[in-house]
C-alpha cells in the first residue's frame, strides 16, 4: 500500500473517530422525516411516490387537495406497510383540513432541514449559530426556474439585496482560522447563472454572455465593495460551457481582473472536467490573479443520464460511482499542485474524498488554512464538526428561500441522501465498515462495458454505444453544446449561402427535365433572397412522370425488399454525411431555427432507417397458422404508383417519410414537395439518386398543387396518394380520390394527415416551471407552424392568475429574429400569404377576445409575425376553432377538469394535446379522455420521435395513420394470402416453416 493511501486511511479513521464521538444518524431529525427516509430506502416505489408527493405539496393550498393527492400517491401501495399507509390515508380523509396542514407542516420541516432560512433576515440566525461553531457560509438564493426576463431581473435584485444584508449583518465577523484570511472573505455568495437569464441556449453561449454580463456586473461590483466573495455554481451540462466562458470573460475585464475573490465549480462526474480545469488554470495564470475552484462531484447525475439517453448523446457523466470518486481525487491533485494560482474548496461529504485532500495537501506541504472544505446545510453535520476540530476551514452552503421554490432543491437532497451509491447512506444508514469506505476508488472500478476505459464517445458528442439486439435506435440529435457542432453549423450556413439562387430541374425517369416556368423559392427572413429556382412541372410533365413510375413499377415491385431497405439506409447515410448542409438549407428556405432544422434532418434519417427496419419485419411471407396438411402464407404486395404531396413545415422529414414508406414497400413514386420548400425536395431527390434509386422509381415533380397536383390526384394510373397538409386540400383529395375513373385499376388509397387545433391543459397542481416553458415552446417553436403546435391553452381557474402572469412574461422574453443566428426561438412565417392570413386572424382575435400580449420588436424585413397571446377566449370563437398555423395562442379559463376536457375536445380536430398535472388520478383521466391522436403528459406537445411517438391524428386531423409507427407501412401495400394443400395421398410433412421466400409480384 502506498504512503498516500496509508495516510488517507489514518486521516479517515481520525474523522470517523471524531464523527463517532457525536453519533448522529443520517436523518438526525427524529420523527416524520426519519421514518419517511427509512421507508424510502427500503422501498424504491415508495421513494418515487414520496418524492413526487413532496414535489407537488408546496403548490397545494387546501387541506382537501393535500389529502386527495396523498390518497392518489399512496393508497395503492403494495408493500409491507400498505395497511398502515392506507389507515393513515383514511384517517387523513376524516379531517382533511387538519391532516392537510399537518402534512404540510411535516414536509416543511423536511425542507427546513435543508433550507437555512426563508429570507435574508431569517437566515442570519443560522449563520450566527454556525459562526459560534467555527463554520463559515456561502449563501445561495433558491428560485423557481426562471422562465422570463422579468423573473431573471427579480433574481438579480434579490441577489443584490442579499449581499447588502449579509454585508451589514456580518460587519466585524472574522475568519475562524485567523490565518490566510485574505483568501477567504466572510461573506460568500453562490449564484446560478440560469436564474439570471431565461433564454439560455446551448448553441449560443455568446448570447448568454451578452445578457448575463450586464446583470452580473452590478452584483460583482457591490460584492467587491463589500469585500465579499462570489462563486458561480455549476448546473446542467447544457450550461457548462457558457458558465465557464462567462466566468473567464467577466474576470478578464479590466475592472475585475485583479479581483481574487471569485470562484467557479468543477464537477468531477463529468468526463471533460479535467480539460476544463486545466483550461481554467491556464487562464488563471495568464490573468495573474488568484481565483477559486469549488470541486464537487455533481448534482445532476440522473438528469444527465436521462437527457443523453433520450437524445442519443454520449453520456457526459461517468457511469460508475468510483469513476467520479477517482476523478475527484485526480482533480484534487491538480488543484493542490497549482495552489499558487487557485484556491481550492472541496465540496464533498465523503470522508474518503476529504481525507484524500487532507493527506495530499500535507504531502505537498500546503498549509490547511489555504484551502477549505465545503458541505451542504443540513447534511453530514458530524463530518463538519470533525473537520473543525481537526483545524480545517469549513464553509456551509446555505440555501435561502421559500418552500415552493425550494422543492426541487429539497428533492435533489432527498435523492442524494437516499441514493444507493451515496457515501452518506453507506456510512450513516447502512453502517458500511470504515475500511470499505476508505478504499481507493481506483480499485473499485469494474472494467465492464460501462467502465471508463470502454465507453465510446464521438468527438461531436453523439453516442457510439450500440444497442443490444435487433432494436431500432433513433439517430442522435446534434448536440449544440459542443463548440465543434456550432462551428460546423456556421460553416454550413456560410457555404449554403454561396449556393443560393441555383436552378434545379425536374427528375423524370432518371432524366433532368427543364421547363420554361420555374418556381422561385425565397428566404422568408429576407424575401428578396432567392434560395433556388426550381423547374415547375405542368400537366405534360405530370403525365411523363406517371408513365415513368408506371413503367418502373414492374421491376421495382419485384425487387427484393432487402434491396429496397438498403436503398433507404444508404440514403440515411448520405443525409448523415450532409447533415449540417441540409439543416442550413432549411434555415434559409423555411426559416427554421438551428435545432429545429437539425431535428427535421434527424427525423428524415430516422424514417429511412425505421421503415427499413419495419419492412424487414413484414417483408417475408408469414405462416398464418400451423395446420397439418396445408400451408397459408400471408404477405404484402405494393399498390402501384404513389403520389406524395408534402408540406413545407417539415420539408425533409415528412417528404422523406412518405416517400420512403412508399419506396420500401415496392411502390414507385411521384414526389411533389411544397413549392415553398422545393429546393429541399431537390436535395432529397439528389440523395436518392446518389443512393442508387433506379430510373423512374422516384420522380421529382414540384409544381402548382392546384394544377398538376390536382391532375395527378385524379389520374387513373395513380394508385395511392400520401398527403400531409391543410384540411382544405386534404378533404378535396379525399373526395376526389373516391371517384373511380375510366381505366383505373385500383381503389385509390389515400393516406391523409391534416391539421390540428391542439390544446394544452394546465391543471391546478401543475409544475408551472415546466408547464410554462413547454407550452411556450409548443406554441411558438417554429413560429407555431408545426401541425402539432399548441394553439389553445386551457388553464384551471385556480392557477390562472399566476400561470398567465408567467406565460405573458415568458412570451415577452423570447428571442425573435433571423434563425441564421443560433439560439433564435421564433423566426419568420413561411411566406407572404401566410403572413397576411395570420395577421387577419390576429385582427379577428382582437374583435373576439382580449389581446393580452403582442411582441413589438420583431424585424421589419421578412415575414415576422409577433408572438401573440389572446386571453378570455371563448371556445366557440374563430380563433379558438380554426387552424391559424402561426405564433398565435388562445388562452381559456376552465372551472374544473371536466370543463377543461370539454373545451379541449370541442374542436373538429384530434391531432395532439398536452396535459400538465401532478395528480396521478387526473393524469389517468387525461390519458383516457382527451380526444387526440397524440396525448402528451407533462411535456411539450410537439417533437414526436420516429418509432417512439408514432404520429398522426383522427377526426379532421387525418385518417388515423401513424407516421413512424409499426402499422404505417401497411397502408402502402395490399395484403395477400396464398394457401396450398400440401397433402398428397393422405401424407403431409409434420412441420411447415414460419417464413418463406418472397412471392415477387406480377410481371
Ligand atoms: C458545498 C457544496 C456545493 C456544491 N455545489 C454544486 C454545484 O454548484 N453544482 C453541482 O452540480 N454540484 C454541487 N455540489 C455537489 C452535489 O450536490 C453533491 O452534494 C455531491 O455530488 C455529493 O458528493 P459527495 O462527495 O458528498 O458524496 P458521494 O456519495 O461520495 O458521491 C455522490 C455523487 O457521486 C456521483 N455519482 C453517483 N452515482 C454515480 C454513478 N453511478 N456514476 C458516476 N457518478 C455517480 C454523483 O455526482 C453523486 O452526487 C455541491 C456540493 C457541496 C457539498
Account of the 3D structure:
The protein has 1003 residues and is an alpha/beta fold. It has 33 helices and 30 strands. The strands form seven sheets. It has an eight-stranded parallel β-barrel, surrounded by seven helices. The radius of gyration is 32 Å and the shape is globular. It binds flavin-adenine dinucleotide. Flavin-adenine dinucleotide binds at residues 233-234, 265, 267, 269, 294, 296-301, 317-321, 323-325, 347-350, 353, 374-376, 397, 416, 421-423.
Entry summary:
By secondary structure, the protein is of the alpha/beta class.
Q: What does the secondary structure layout of this molecule look like, with pairings?
A:
Layout: H1 3-21, H2 32-42, H3 44-57, H4 63-74, H5 82-94, H6 96-114, H7 120-132, E1 136-141, H8 149-169, E2 188-191, H9 205-226, E3 229-232, H10 237-250, E4 262-267, H11 273-287, E5 291-296, H12 301-311, H13 321-337, E6 342-347, H14 351-363, E7 372-376, H15 381-389, E8 394-400, H16 403-418, H17 423-429, H18 434-437, H19 483-499, E9 502-504, E10 506-508, E11 511-513, E12 518-523, E13 526-535, H20 539-556, H21 561-577, H22 579-590, H23 594-618, E14 622-623, E15 630-638, E16 641-645, H24 653-664, E17 668-672, H25 678-691, E18 698-700, H26 705-713, E19 720-724, H27 727-737, E20 749-753, E21 758-762, H28 768-780, E22 790-796, H29 800-813, H30 832-848, E23 850-854, E24 868-871, H31 878-881, E25 888-894, H32 897-904, E26 909-910, E27 912-916, H33 920-929, E28 934-937, E29 954-955, E30 973-981
Parallel strand pairs: 1-2, 1-8, 2-3, 3-4, 4-5, 5-6, 6-7, 7-8, 9-13, 16-17, 16-19, 17-18, 19-20, 21-22, 21-27, 22-25, 24-25, 27-28
Antiparallel strand pairs: 10-11, 12-13, 14-15, 15-30, 23-24, 26-29
Bound molecules: flavin-adenine dinucleotide.
Residues 233-234, 265, 267, 269, 294, 296-301, 317-321, 323-325, 347-350, 353, 374-376, 397, 416, 421-423 line the site of flavin-adenine dinucleotide.
Amino acid at each position: 500500500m502506498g504512503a498516500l493511501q496509508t495516510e488517507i486511511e489514518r486521516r479517515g479513521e481520525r474523522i470517523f473517530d471524531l464523527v463517532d464521538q457525536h453519533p448522529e444518524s443520517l436523518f438526525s431529525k427524529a420523527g416524520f422525516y426519519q421514518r419517511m427516509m427509512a421507508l424510502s430506502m427500503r422501498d424504491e416505489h415508495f421513494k418515487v411516490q414520496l418524492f413526487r408527493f413532496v414535489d407537488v405539496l408546496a403548490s397545494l393550498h387546501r387541506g382537501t387537495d393535500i389529502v386527495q393527492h396523498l390518497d392518489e400517491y399512496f393508497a395503492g401501495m403494495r408493500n409491507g406497510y400498505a395497511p398502515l399507509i392506507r389507515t393513515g390515508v383514511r384517517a387523513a380523509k376524516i379531517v382533511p383540513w387538519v391532516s392537510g396542514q399537518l402534512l404540510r407542516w411535516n414536509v416543511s420541516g423536511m425542507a427546513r432541514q435543508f433550507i437555512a432560512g426563508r429570507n435574508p433576515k431569517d437566515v442570519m440566525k443560522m449563520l450566527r449559530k454556525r459562526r459560534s461553531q467555527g463554520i463559515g457560509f456561502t449563501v445561495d438564493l433558491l428560485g423557481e426556474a426562471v422562465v422570463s426576463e422579468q423573473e431573471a431581473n427579480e433574481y438579480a435584485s434579490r441577489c443584490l439585496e442579499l449581499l447588502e444584508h449579509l454585508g451589514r449583518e456580518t460587519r466585524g465577523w472574522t475568519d475562524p482560522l485567523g490565518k490566510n484570511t485574505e483568501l477567504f472573505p466572510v461573506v460568500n455568495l453562490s449564484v446560478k447563472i440560469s436564474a439570471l437569464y431565461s433564454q439560455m441556449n446551448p448553441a449560443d453561449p455568446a448570447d448568454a454572455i451578452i445578457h448575463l454580463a450586464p446583470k452580473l456586473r452590478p452584483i460583482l461590483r457591490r460584492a467587491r465593495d463589500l469585500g465579499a466573495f462570489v462563486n458561480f455554481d455549476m448546473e446542467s451540462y447544457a450550461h457548462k460551457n457558457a458558465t465557464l466562458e462567462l466566468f473567464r470573460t467577466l474576470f478578464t475585464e479590466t475592472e475585475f481582473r485583479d479581483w481574487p475573490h471569485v470562484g467557479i465549480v468543477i464537477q468531477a462526474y463529468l468526463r471533460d472536467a479535467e480539460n476544463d480545469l486545466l483550461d481554467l488554470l491556464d487562464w488563471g495564470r495568464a490573468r495573474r490573479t488568484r481565483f477559486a475552484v469549488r470541486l464537487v462531484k455533481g448534482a445532476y447525475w440522473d438528469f444527465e443520464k436521462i437527457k443523453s439517453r433520450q437524445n442519443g448523446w454520449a453520456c457526459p457523466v461517468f457511469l460508475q460511482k468510483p469513476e467520479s470518486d477517482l476523478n475527484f481525487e485526480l482533480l484534487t491533485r491538480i488543484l493542490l499542485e497549482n495552489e499558487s494560482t487557485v484556491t481550492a474548496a472541496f465540496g464533498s461529504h465523503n470522508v474518503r474524498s476529504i481525507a484524500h485532500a487532507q493527506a495530499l495537501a500535507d504531502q505537498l506541504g500546503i498549509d490547511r488554512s489555504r484551502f477549505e472544505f465545503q458541505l451542504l446545510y443540513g447534511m453530514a453535520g458530524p463530518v463538519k464538526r470533525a473537520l473543525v476540530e481537526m483545524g480545517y476551514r469549513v464553509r456551509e452552503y446555505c440555501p435561502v428561500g421559500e418552500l415552493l421554490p425550494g422543492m426541487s432543491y429539497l428533492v435533489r437532497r432527498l435523492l442524494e441522501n437516499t441514493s444507493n451509491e451515496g457515501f452518506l447512506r453507506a456510512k450513516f444508514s447502512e453502517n458500511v465498515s470504515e475500511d470499505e469506505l476508505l478504499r481507493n476508488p481506483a480499485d473499485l472500478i469494474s472494467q465492464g462495458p460501462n467502465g471508463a476505459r470502454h465507453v465510446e464517445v464521438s468527438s461531436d458528442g453523439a453516442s457510439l454505444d450500440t444497442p443490444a439486439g435487433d432494436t431500432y435506435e433513433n439517430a442522435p440529435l446534434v448536440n449544440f453544446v459542443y463548440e465543434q457542432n456550432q462551428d460546423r453549423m456556421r460553416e454550413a450556413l456560410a457555404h449554403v449561402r454561396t449556393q443560393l439562387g441555383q436552378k434545379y430541374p425536374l427528375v423524370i425517369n432518371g432524366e433532368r427535365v427543364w421547363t420554361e416556368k420555374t418556381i422561385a423559392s425565397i428566404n422568408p427572413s429576407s424575401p428578396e433572397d432567392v434560395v433556388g429556382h426550381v423547374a415547375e412541372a405542368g400537366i405534360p410533365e405530370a403525365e411523363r412522370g406517371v408513365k415513368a413510375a408506371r413503367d418502373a413499377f414492374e421491376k421495382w415491385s419485384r425487387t427484393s425488399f432487402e434491396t429496397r431497405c438498403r436503398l433507404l439506409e444508404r440514403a440515411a447515410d448520405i443525409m448523415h454525411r450532409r447533415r449540417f448542409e441540409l439543416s442550413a438549407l432549411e434555415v434559409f428556405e423555411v426559416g427554421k431555427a438551428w435545432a429545429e432544422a437539425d431535428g427535421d434532418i434527424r427525423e428524415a434519417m430516422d424514417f429511412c432507417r425505421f421503415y427499413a427496419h419495419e419492412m424487414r419485419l413484414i417483408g417475408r411471407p408469414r405462416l398464418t397458422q400451423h395446420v397439418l396438411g396445408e400451408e397459408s402464407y400471408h404477405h404484402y404486395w405494393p399498390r402501384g404508383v404513389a403520389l406524395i404531396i408534402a408540406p413545407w413545415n417539415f420539408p425533409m422529414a415528412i417528404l422523406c417519410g412518405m416517400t420512403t414508406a412508399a419506396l420500401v414497400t415496392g411502390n414507385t413514386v411521384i414526389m411533389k414537395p411544397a413549392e415553398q420548400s422545393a429546393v429541399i425536395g431537390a436535395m432529397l431527390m439528389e440523395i436518392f439518386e446518389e443512393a442508387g434509386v433506379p430510373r423512374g422509381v422516384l420522380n421529382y415533380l414540384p409544381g402548382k398543387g392546384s394544377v398538376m397536383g390536382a391532375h395527378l390526384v385524379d389520374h387513373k394510373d395513380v394508385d395511392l396518394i400520401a398527403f400531409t397538409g391543410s384540411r382544405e386540400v386534404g378533404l378535396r383529395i379525399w373526395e376526389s380520390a373516391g371517384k373511380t375513373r375510366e381505366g383505373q385499376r385500383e381503389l385509390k388509397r389515400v393516406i391523409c394527415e391534416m391539421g390540428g387545433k391542439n390544446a394544452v391543459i394546465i391543471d391546478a397542481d401543475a409544475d408551472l416551471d415546466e408547464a410554462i416553458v413547454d407550452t411556450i415552446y409548443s406554441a411558438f417553436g417554429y413560429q407555431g407552424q408545426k401541425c402539432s403546435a399548441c394553439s389553445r391553452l386551457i388553464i384551471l381557474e385556480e392557477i390562472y392568475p399566476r400561470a398567465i402572469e408567467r406565460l405573458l412574461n415568458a412570451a415577452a422574453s423570447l428571442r425573435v429574429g433571423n434563425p441564421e443566428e443560433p439560439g433564435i426561438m421564433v423566426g419568420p412565417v413561411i411566406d407572404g400569404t401566410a403572413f397576411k392570413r395570420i395577421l387577419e386572424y390576429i385582427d379577428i382575435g382582437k374583435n373576439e377576445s382580449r389581446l393580452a400580449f403582442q411582441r413589438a420588436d420583431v424585424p421589419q424585413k421578412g415575414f415576422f409575425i409577433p408572438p401573440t397571446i389572446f386571453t378570455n377566449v371563448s371556445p366557440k370563437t374563430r380563433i379558438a376553432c380554426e387552424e391559424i398555423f402561426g405564433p398565435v395562442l388562445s388562452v381559456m379559463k376552465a372551472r374544473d377538469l371536466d370543463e377543461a376536457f370539454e373545451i379541449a375536445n370541442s374542436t373538429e380536430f384530434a391531432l395532439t394535446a398536452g396535459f400538465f398535472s401532478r395528480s396521478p388520478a387526473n393524469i389517468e383521466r387525461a390519458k383516457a379522455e382527451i380526444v387526440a391522436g397524440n396525448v402528451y403528459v407533462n411535456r411539450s406537445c410537439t417533437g414526436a420521435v420516429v418509432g417512439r411517438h408514432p404520429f398522426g391524428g383522427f377526426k379532421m386531423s387525418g385518417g388515423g395513420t401513424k407516421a413512424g409507427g409499426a402499422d404505417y407501412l401497411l397502408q402502402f401495400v395490399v395484403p395477400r394470402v396464398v394457401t396450398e394443400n400440401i397433402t398428397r395421398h393422405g401424407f403431409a410433412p409434420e412441420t411447415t416453416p414460419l417464413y418463406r421466400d418472397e412471392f415477387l409480384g406480377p410481371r
